[in-house]
Amino acid sequence: MLPVEVTVGTSGWRERLKQTFLVTFPALLLCLALDFVGGGVLGKNFEMIASSYPLLLVILPGLSDLRGNVFGAMASRMTTALHLGKVRRILDKEVTTNISMAIGSSKIPLIVLWIAGTMKLGFSHSAFIVLLIVIASALVIGFLLGYSTAFITIFPYQWGADPDMIAAPLITSVADVVTIPTLVYLVFFYEDHPGMFYTFTVIMLALFILMVILSRYTKEHVKAFKEVATVLTILGIIEIFSGSTLESYSSIISKAIILSVMYPSILDSVGNFASIAAATTSTRLNLSGKSALKNREFYFDVSALLLLAPIIGFLTNYIAVHVTALIGYKAELIWPFILGYPLLVVLNMAIGVLIAYLSHRFNIDPDNVAIPTVTTISDVMGTLFVVLLAKMMVGV
Predict the structure, then answer these.
(1) I need a surface site. Which of 14, 72, 264, 268 has the fewest CB within 10 A?
(2) What span, in angstroms and rounded, lies between the C-alpha atoms of 53 and 341?
(3) Which letter does DSSP use for residue 161 in this model?
(4) How many whole angstroms separate alpha carbon 124 and alpha carbon 323?
(5) Is residue 279 domain-shared with residue 352, that is, in the same domain?
(6) What is the pLDDT of residues 146-163, one digit of tens each?
(7) Is the dihedral of CA 28, 29, 34, 39 positive or negative?
(8) Within this chain, do residues 139 and 217 fall inside the same structural domain, yes or no?
């Protein structure tokens, strides 16, 4: 998910428009390109996953959303720890503790998603294998993203740069790239070498337990763990709807394979627009209170951002046509998607503004809840949009 720097000032419409097209637009394009790495892998293997491991489809939206939330939060904590002098090197105890916290806090909602999926589809040997695949992927990706987060916060800080300006965008982009390919690779790993897969999973669990033992938890860490795990679990429960819907209509989506290629990009890009709207609203509320939302500068920001929606929508479909061709399927532009995508963006941006406003009104810092909440809602809305398009395309 795309983090953004929000500028609050007295610049006019032209300046807002310039910033939107020179700063926000390139960032959205980068995220779009990275999303198609996972989209291509998902599209190529969608039918296999839907038929042999349908439970993975129930878990997939929540799993993808968790990555950016968990390690984006870790990047923020690491930056604070650097400024406070608690962290100096990657091998410090504080780094190990934060990584083990991030991995552990993501495990609870994943288990909740798995239980919900087994209740829907029934427990089977395949469900047990999916559990092992999800655990193994969470550990592998957790180690990778955890130490990547530590590196891209500590290294720039040592060179005098502000980690806040680079850590979160980089780590969320890496998370978008590795999540789906790692899941698919582990499926093939199990099918080709089941014995080695079991051994690998046990080794990953042992490494995680060792990391927990080597961590140094304080009351502050425990409190942060509870807060993060609680929020992620609640959002994970909401994600059950996205995953359940995706699995229920997988047979229809598999007949319009371009939609499975586009699926990660649709969810992520719509979430990016909603996140920017929520971040803009949150910053203005925290700095100036409710009166800031009556300022024309706020409407300049939102209006300029909305101009990007049709462009991103068209590019999403256009790139997907070529990616789909690369994996061996024919595809073409989907005009109901191109026309409907901006409306989906408008709706989710409005939800982002509303959630930030309501959080502030009830004395909850919108910085802590708005973006994770709107990205989860965007996943639900995006999934429903994809299902609607699939039914239109196959004539159901």
Answers:
(1) 14
(2) 30
(3) -
(4) 34
(5) yes
(6) 888 888 778 777 777 656
(7) positive
(8) yes
3-state secondary structure 213-257: HHCCCCHHHHHHHHHHHHHHHHHHHHHHHHHHHHHHCHHHHCCCH
pLDDT tens, position by position, 21-70:
877 788 788 878 888 888 899 899 998 898 889 998 988 888 777 776 77
Query: What's the sign of the alpha-carbon dihedral 247, 249, 253, 259?
Result: negative
Is 279 found in the same domain as 235? no
Phi, psi of 298 (to 5 degrees): -65, -45
- Answer yes or no: are the C-beta atoms of 321 and 256 closer than 8 Å: no
What residues make up the domain containing 184?
53-245
Phi, psi angles (nearest 5°) of residue 364:
-110, 130
Give the Cα separation of 367 and 355 in Å (integer).
11
- The answer to whether the CB of 137 falls within 8 A of the CB of 264 is no
Report the 10 Å Cβ neighbour count for 181.
16
CA atoms of 236 and 116, how far apart (whole Å): 10
Q: How far apart are the C-alpha atoms of 215 and 227, rounded to whole Å?
A: 19
For residue 271, CA distances in Å to 64, 214, 279, 331 come to: 12, 36, 12, 25
- pTM score of the predicted model: 0.79
Q: Rounded to the nearest 5°, which phi and psi values hold at 60?
A: -55, -50
